[in-house]
Amino acid sequence: MRVALLQLNSTVGDLVGNAGRIERAAGEAAAAGADLAITHELALPGYPPRDLLLDRAFVADMQQAAHRLARALAGVVPVLVGTAVPSAVGRPLANAALLLEGGECRATVAKGLLPTYDVFDEDRYFEAGQRAHPIEIAGVAMGVHVCEDIWNDREFWPRPRYRRDPVEELAGQGARYLLNLSSSPFYAGKQQLRERLLAHAARRHRLPVLYVNQVGGNDELLFDGRSCVFDGEGRLSARARAFAEDMLLVDLDSLAGRIEPQPTGEAEIWEALVMGTADYARKCGFRQGLVALSGGIDSALTLAIVAAALGPANVLAVMMPSPYSSAGSIDDSLALAANLGVETLKLPIAPAMAAFEQILAPAFADLAADVTEENLQARIRGTLMMALSNKWNRLVFITGNKSETAVGFNTLYGCTAGALAVIADLYKGEVYRLARWLNRDGAAIPEGILTKAPSAELRPDQRDSDTLPPYDVLDGILRAHLEGGRTPEEIADKGYHPEVIKKVLAMVRRAEFKRKQLPPGLRVSPRAFGIGWRMPIART
């Protein structure tokens, strides 16, 4: 029996497009000799559909799309399709895998474990499936289950999250293969964890595991694909491509298949960000983008990613120098754009600064200049970027990093104005490492950008270090706090000064109101700002 793992890039809410993608992929699988094809979790509505599932018209359309897809696949190949179906009790829907065969749905398997941590909120929409049972496909007992159902192995985790283990149930009832339909969000290094988990499940139950994962970007969540197969000894037998659609064909008798190499380190993060940027633009209906180019490292890396995602001809780099902008920053910006093949536009903001000073002079009489005037510069730039966006129908990609976002070192309605925060989940040190990795075969990013002291250039001789600790110190404290969940005392044990820790954590708390107003940022870490971060604004 040959099984095709259909690694697809679904668009949330695009029922017609997603169904067509499944149908085409199933046809290709049949032509390649597959006897069964498998999609990822919620492949038909797209994942995550979120509150589309509360829209009764959308739910009705989704059911009709499933019926049409079943008829379209009649005589092609049986397909296990991820979608949502009505539930008889409790919440109105179940997250399920449907076996479409012979023009109808022959079996339904509901997801048993519904995650409500991190970026997940499935208990809001779905009723959990009860005790799992294998289903028969071509005379073989298949242990079909959905995503989280394989993530609760009590022998793998020191503290399981749920009281039951659907995979254990399936294995105990005679399943010969474990088939998992997943939409597992990406973060750097997660594939290694997945493969350890899947290998452990295969060894523990002495059953082959076939794992299908979604690929593509949906808002801030990225999906890396890398669908894979493990034999009953826990050995990797096959792996699909990373960050690209693919069909992985596996013969169940031999479990032999191709094993694609997987990117790691900076290469993995680069591919994730380029894919996420490209998909965000395409799925929102845009082909062209704008990036404000300052001459600093953050805007340089952002421009490189956007140019790779959309194509250099579809990107415009906008330079908006003020009287405080250095000649080196302008020259470096022009060199960067030339290296990337990106067109530039120069819009000096001194006239707008003077106009605002004149308008505000009566209100600001006898008040010393302070950060207000600095923020005005950023907001002038934000206004210009959004004007270009409106006039030319281009997306604005903002350039802030995770270190700045964490402590509020940004200006609302200024440098934060835009559609997508491309590097918002990279600490400043990671920005430099990724930029240097990008330069491994040549100087795409000019050396002057990589070596200059970070500065917003909003006043004479300004440096980020005037306000912030050195970035290696700041990043270490932030990583321990945000991702490690460490207390101030535990962070101090790592060698950081208690007063610096206190200052940084206070800045993190105060900046919450800013983060709530930011555009989505592409997630590449286990703990990112966004839908998985739910801190209150008004707090002590």
Short description:
One of its GO terms (molecular function) is NAD+ synthase (glutamine-hydrolyzing) activity. This protein has 540 residues and is of the alpha/beta class. It has helices at 15-31, 56-72, 166-172, 190-205, 265-283, 297-310, 327-340, 350-360, 371-392, 402-407, 428-438, 447-451, 471-483, 488-492, 498-510, 512-515, and strands at residues 2-7, 36-38, 79-86, 93-101, 104-110, 135-137, 140-146, 177-182, 209-213, 215-218, 221-224, 228-230, 236-239, 246-251, 289-292, 315-319, 343-346, 395-398, 420-421.
Describe the 3D structure:
The termini are far apart. The strands form four sheets. The chain has a six-stranded mixed beta sheet. The mean pLDDT is 95. The protein has 540 residues and is α/β, with parallel strands linked by helices. It is 36% helix and 17% strand. It contains 16 helices and 19 strands. The longest helix has 22 residues.
